[in-house]
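hi support,

uploading two proteins for the ticket. first:
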Amino acid sequence: MKQTESGEGTATRQCWECLKRRLVCDHALPHCKKCQKAGKECPGYDDQKPLQWVEPGEVTSRRRKKNSLPPIYTAPTKESTGRLTHRSAKDFELHLLASDIHDLDAPALDVVEYERAYTLWKSSNEPYWADLAEEQDAKAMREIVFQTAMNIQAIDQIFNLGNRDEIADVVLRRDHKAAADMLRSENQPLKRLERLLRIMKLHDLPSYDYLTNETNEIVQAVQYYNLRILPTVKAAGELAPNPAVIMFPLRALHILPPAIHHTLVCLALNHFVHSLPVGAAKTTAIENRSKVYRHRGAAIQALSHYVGKDKTRCSDLTIASILMFMSMELQNPAMADWRSHASGLRRIIDMRGGFKSLLRQTPHLAPTLVVYILIVIIANTCSPSWDQIDLSGTPQENASDVKELHLLIFPYTLCPPQLFFDIMKINNLRARASAVLFAGEMDPNHALDAQDLLTAIEAFSSKNWAQPGDHYDEWLRIGTVYQSAVALYCTMSLQSLTILPETLEMNSMRSIHGDRLIEGLKAAIKSPRLVSFLIWPIVVAGVQAGYRDEATRSWVGSQLSELSRKLGTSSPLKAQAVLRRYWQKEEPGWDECFDRPYVFVI
């Protein structure tokens, strides 16, 4: 029994009800207070699960048919249409037995083992908004994602005594005491280390002896992230804290593939270079960029190795590695071919059964996949109408998936949900209209859809949406900025396709929203809680500046330069280069600016 700071005793494990519901137990004695608040009877903390009465005619488990496997373990071949919910108690019990099933195929085994490795250790922290009213499915998804994100911090405990080789040595010697010391637990330490060792072998993770050297560039990159990048990101997320943004445990490097290691170095070096003040020595930037290219090459080589092998091609770590590398590519000074990574990632997601099936199998991947969704949606706004990236599934299925995940997407954008979904609808309308135009036809329904979209955007009320409290003015400001930005995107992009007409009324509306957007941006750019979420609205203002004077264009360009230094990324500088080329053409219009695919989001 452990002692709290007040001297009260606490249990050393979760109660069975919290374990079944996949919640973080408070370990209170004699009964869990979380169960009492939920109106549940706490079954206690015994080593054996307590017996439960079953109504006549009901069963809690069934025998499997010969040579058949539980559905939870197989990588599905088609997308599920079910909603995201907690697993049942039966599913969870089956899940615990997964490591003892040896005839699973590699992708299925990977799903089971990877999640088991991350759910062996618990976290005692919860976000302060945990008890806010939410739809049940959304709340369940948020709780799973938050607990998984926080559990990553607990992995730091695993490697207090060594790396993979030392873990393997403890397992080989069947040294129960050493295993218990390593995990700081007497609860089946050897079995838990064996399970962890399997996931490391499954992903061909090396021993990483060099990570014990504090001067190693990978170790320094993690320390740079924790000390320089993380505090600024957390400060910027004060309005909507992001549960996926956590401190990176240094010893967690031992269970991550080399591709993520080298990508981490690239991210840290890119941030350092772009954060340098004006007038800093160019030699510093040149020296560090050469390191970026070296580690970038090593990351590509490691990714090729993983994608080229059957057992790791569709694994969770491969998906995370590709997305992390793609995000880094968006920050590189050069216009990297990020679309090839996005297309490859989509194929892997399809091979795993699509977004919904993948999320049901591995909810811990949700924070990773929402970044991919965000990148694709924003990229489609800044790409030609005929060259967009499709998410996995039909537009209706994608809209449903994004709505379920919007609680996780929102902290990255602060874009009001209605307007974010309107962006998706505009993207889809552009793609449909472009396909018809290329066929030499016209669909009158497209014009009606465009008018309906514009009406819905105009009807949005920032005052009604803004969150009450100390930061009401900032919520109102960001809502107004996004309303004008989305209205301009709708007007200019659909005018380029002749869906919306170039009438005096339409052009007047475009000019009014342009004035509102510039005015809102000038105020929002001064707020440290808003400045990190303004790249896309500033880009929209830059496109609309094609209809304006040189002073407006100069202001947009200078703000993008300043934003690059504040955020430590080259994405605003890439946007600046695209806009300057567009302004020089003196041919205003959305498609005139984005004649090839771009993305300005990170």
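and the second one:
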Amino acid sequence: MKYFFKIFLILNLIWGSSCQNEPVEPDLKATAAPAYFNLSAFISEQAELLQASQVKVKKTITALPDSPETKVLQNINWEQELETFTQADINKPALRAAYDVTTSPTTNGQTKTIYRQRAGYRDTPVEYLEVITSADKQVVAVTGRHRENNYLVKSGKNFSLRCAPVNGKNRIVAYRISGTQKTIFFDPLQYTVQGDIQ
């Protein structure tokens, strides 16, 4: 029971409140800005794939100062489970001028693209997003940082996922979310959620 209460608490913290700061409106150059990586569409496709595959996940939750707790779960709502990543999507009209984009090759033939928040857009919740793709344009890894700061909540969380070919399809094989959250009502909470998909 304690485990599932902890899951409920952390998931609510991860999903965040609806009182997020509105991003600064982009300037006229927004229409010329390139589209960013569509993280929301990618996660939606992955959620459908994982749901159809009926995979299990070895999930470890740590909420300090408690010890880590691990469970193997199968009946997962993957859209909800991966909600943190969907919320970190920066491919939105209001954000089209909010990020600098740098792309560079890696030593193993992959491509690393980093989307970093511009100085004039400090109210955007995603500070940066890094996407690594393979030579055939398949997603290998995604990492980033999301923050929220309003009169009720001050939080920051790092998120990452890894993908690999499974049964001929590229899919998420592991994900991790870690962060801190401080509300006006409770002490700061430090948490980590690690999922290894089987």
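thanks. also noticed: The chain has a mean pLDDT of 85.
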